[in-house]
Amino acid sequence: MSQRVNYFEESRALSQKLFALADEVKKSSLGNTLIDLVNIRASQINGCAFCLDMHCKEAKIHGEQELRIYHIPIWRESTLFSETERAVLEWTEVVTTLSGHGISDEVYDRVRAQLSETQISELTFAIGVINLWNRLNISFQPVPGSLDEMLGLTGAGLSSPQRSAKA
User: Fold this and answer.
1) Among 97, 81, 86, 98, which residue's Cα sits nearest to residue 42?
2) Is 149 helix (H, G, I), strand (E, B) or coil?
3) Angle between helical axes of 31-46 and 12-26 (0-180°, round to 10)
4) Would you tell me the crossing angle of helices 117-140 and 31-46 to the nearest 10 degrees?
5) pLDDT per residue of the chain (167 residues) written in tens, 0 to 9
6) Could you give the CA distance from residue 89 to residue 130 in angstroms, rounded to a whole number?
7) Domain map (residue ranges) of the chain
8) How far apart are CA 2 and CA 114, in angstroms?
9) What DSSP character marks residue 134?
10) What is d(CA 6, CA 12) in angstroms, rounded to the nearest whole number?
11) Could you confirm whether domain 19-144 is CATH 1.20.1290.10?
């Protein structure tokens, strides 16, 4: 796989605005753990290899346990997540996969029981931001791990030498 378009260079002003919005989300009341869960789960749902690679590494740098990262796709069956984390993961799934029916009151009530209205708003912004990053990266195919050094992700100890597409 090779990158199609370097959207950072071709749309510098827009990329900078998206980075600024992502930085504001990181400053929200949600904290690293919830934001990491959002970023990983949405990236899994959307099939974004670049973002999934990046956010798993970020989560590890933030102190997340590897087993919890492995359990994110099976969060409903796993005993490793709190009720708040479960509500965040469920909200992430329904906002990422919006259907023509919207989001049910039951799902909203579950997230509302765990988070304040401000946190729900911040959470929904976080989900929107990662979904936009996913769409950009799926469209333009940057190589997973190719920006680890620039993004400060080598500290996760998960970076590996780039392999050719034939490997």
Assistant:
1) 97
2) helix
3) 130
4) 40
5) 677 888 888 889 999 999 999 999 999 999 999 999 999 999 999 999 999 999 999 999 999 999 999 999 999 999 999 999 999 999 999 999 998 889 999 999 999 999 999 999 999 999 999 999 999 999 998 777 776 677 777 777 776 655 444 44
6) 13
7) 19-144
8) 42
9) H
10) 10
11) yes
